[in-house]
């Protein structure tokens, strides 16, 4: 089947809404199901409804960084996105044009609001806005829908409030797969998306699933129904075989696009040797391939860690590696915030 350096953590669309973002006041605006924009308002927008921070970031010990692989609570319960008068989402005109860097955060399975907030804090505190992109399990199981979703995200990035802004990509678990759906469109339309490709100043891959279809099937079992992991794995393998032209063939195409990534900005990989969803040899081969293509690639590998929980397991190491990478990027506003 070939190597599959694609992310496959799976969760329901719109399952993650961050309620705990430190560093001051911000606005949360839902662009569409699965896509939410978090940004700091302009001075002239003082009269807009704002969402105050709900906690101050404390020391990043493992216990302070919660991680859950289970489904999140209903997003409709999130006060950030409530329809009540005190928490009315901002309209599309509130954000206005800005040159502030934008983080595209492709989240992982069942990410709890507090866990996602820890990552968003890292970037909001550095003067970046955040576009949170989530995926549905069906975007993976039926790749055509994933491609359609990827095209919708690209159209969002072409809107005035996002167009031309420096972009940083951070993809975790299924986020790597979702981002690949964007890359497929970019590779198919290099002239159309030339400007967008140049906007990306860096991309970060955290717990990228890499290996064979077996790794994908394992990911499905462990994330959808952990107690029946073996059954789901076997069912998934049968499904991939039965609908090969609609699944495996699409995955193979995505693999080739990812290997020949049209985004050549500096990249950073976080992975571990004991991750059942990731073959470290495959990741290292990918890193070598990109370096041979002339890309600047950094990585941090741990002997033992947890899938999509490296920051929780190794907070000091994770943050220092991320800080070093961000400092290397050509954005003065990021460096000034550190």
TrEMBL record:
GO terms for molecular function: serine hydrolase activity. InterPro entries: AB_hydrolase_fold, DUF829_TMEM53. It comes from the Eukaryota. Residues 62-96 are annotated as: Disordered. Pfam families: DUF829. Residues 87-96 have a biased composition (Polar residues). This is Uncharacterized protein. It comes from Lates japonicus. Residues 62-86 have a biased composition (Low complexity).
């Amino acid at each position: 089947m070939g190597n599959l350096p694609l992310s496959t953590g799976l969760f329901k669309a719109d399952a993650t809404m961050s309620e705990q973002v430190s560093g001051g006041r911000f606005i949360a605006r839902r662009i569409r199901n699965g896509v939410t924009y978090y940004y700091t308002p302009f001075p002239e927008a003082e009269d807009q409804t704002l969402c105050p921070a709900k906690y101050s970031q404390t020391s990043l010990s493992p216990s302070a960084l919660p991680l859950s692989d289970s489904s999140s609570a209903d997003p409709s319960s999130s006060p950030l996105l409530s329809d009540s008068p005190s928490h009315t989402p901002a309209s599309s005109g509130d954000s206005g044009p800005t040159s502030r860097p934008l983080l595209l955060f492709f989240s992982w399975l069942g990410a709890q609001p507090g866990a996602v907030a820890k990552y968003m804090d890292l970037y909001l505190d550095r003067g970046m806005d955040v576009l949170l992109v989530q995926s549905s399990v069906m975007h993976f199981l039926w790749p055509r829908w994933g491609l359609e979703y990827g095209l919708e995200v690209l159209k969002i990035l072409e809107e005035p409030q996002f167009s031309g802004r420096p972009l940083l990509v951070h993809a975790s678990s299924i986020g790597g797969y979702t981002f690949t759906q964007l890359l497929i469109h970019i590779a198919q339309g290099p002239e159309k998306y030339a400007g967008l490709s140049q906007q990306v100043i860096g991309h970060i891959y955290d717990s990228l699933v890499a290996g064979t279809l077996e790794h994908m099937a394992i990911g499905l079992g462990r994330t959808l129904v952990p107690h029946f992991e073996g059954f789901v794995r076997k069912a998934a393998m049968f499904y991939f075989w039965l609908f090969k032209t609609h699944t495996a063939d699409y995955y193979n195409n995505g693999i080739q696009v990812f290997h020949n990534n049209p985004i050549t900005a500096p990249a950073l990989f976080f992975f571990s040797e004991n991750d059942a969803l990731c073959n470290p040899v495959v990741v290292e081969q990918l890193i070598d391939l990109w370096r041979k293509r002339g890309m600047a690639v950094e990585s941090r590998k741990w002997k033992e860690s947890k899938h999509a929980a490296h920051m929780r397991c190794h907070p000091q190491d994770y943050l220092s590696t991320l800080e070093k990478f961000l400092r290397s990027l050509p954005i003065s506003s990021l460096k000034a915030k550190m």
